[in-house]
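Tip: read the tokens left to right.
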């Protein structure tokens, strides 16, 4: 695959000064943290889901846009959030098309933590399970902050390992890992990524990227194969999700 450094090292859109920006805040819980008390990647992913749901409720869009599928999530941990702490989230649209959008979420904490995220979301028709057009009313709110009005999907991570991977590691699933559609919850995919991150990377600013290819359903056998700085979550002899991570410059979030 022709993946370029420009793709996965691209800087995230800055916080706009005007437009529709959703805000939320809550305390960090002990169930959200690593053994070093830093906020885990899977907890960050869950925060993004919760903020997205609350944002839909706040916009009165739950009836018209109840179902969204995430294709990629990018997490830049610039300053770790360390428990005990309280996080403050700001969520806005950075890119837009008629059926999908990129949503930025900035997470700051009272203790000085700073995490920048961006996720590529597709609006799904609950009846057909296919991508659906975003309504004009909802589009207007998203467009008020979008810097890219012609958003296109482009994969950043090759699902084929770029180095010889280690032996497959089984990844047993629990009933609590599944959502109401009997698919593995998006945040669960981040758990093996959290396990694979080297301590030296966690000690400074870093970026982690996770791309979803196909959902994992109940009853499937799942395994994880890990490369030098990549990870692939497999089921049915194919990658269902792929991750990549690398260090960032201490003074920016766009260079590794």
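Filled-in amino acids:
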């Amino acid at each position: 695959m022709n993946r370029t450094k420009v793709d996965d090292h691209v800087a995230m859109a800055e916080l706009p000064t005007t437009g529709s920006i959703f805000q939320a805040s809550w305390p960090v819980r002990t169930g959200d943290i690593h053994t070093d008390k830093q906020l885990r990647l899977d907890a960050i992913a869950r925060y993004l889901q919760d903020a997205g749901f609350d944002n839909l409720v706040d916009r009165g869009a739950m009836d018209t846009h109840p179902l969204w599928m995430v294709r990629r999530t990018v997490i830049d941990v610039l300053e770790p959030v360390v428990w005990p702490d309280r996080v403050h989230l700001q969520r806005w649209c950075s890119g837009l098309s008629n059926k999908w959008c990129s949503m930025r979420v900035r997470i700051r904490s009272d203790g000085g933590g700073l995490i920048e995220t961006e996720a590529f979301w597709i609006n799904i028709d609950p009846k057909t399970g296919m991508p659906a057009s975003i309504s004009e009313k909802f589009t207007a709110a998203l467009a008020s902050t979008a810097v890219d009005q012609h958003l296109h999907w482009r994969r950043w991570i090759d699902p084929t390992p770029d180095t010889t991977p280690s032996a497959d590691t089984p990844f047993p699933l629990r009933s609590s890992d599944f959502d109401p559609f009997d698919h593995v919850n998006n945040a669960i995919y981040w758990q093996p990524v959290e396990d694979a991150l080297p301590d030296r990377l966690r000690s400074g600013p870093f970026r982690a990227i996770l791309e979803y290819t196909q959902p994992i359903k109940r009853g499937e056998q799942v395994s994880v194969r890990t490369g030098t700085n990549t990870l692939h979550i497999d089921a049915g002899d194919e990658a269902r999700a792929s991750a990549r991570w690398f260090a960032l410059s201490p003074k920016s979030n766009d260079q590794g």
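Residues 41-59 form the longest helix (19 residues). The chain has a mean pLDDT of 92.
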